[in-house]
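Quick one:
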Amino acid sequence: MSEDLPEAVEQFLEATDTALSEYDQGYVDADATLSVVRDHVETLRETAADEE
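Output:
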């Protein structure tokens, strides 16, 4: 990945906030929200590993 860790963290937080907001508004169910958040966690984890 070409992005740096602080940028990846910011993107993770924004994307996770969006997923949770959509869940809170009833647009998606809990399973779909959890799947999206897990994807974001994995992306962040990969970026952090690339920084090491």
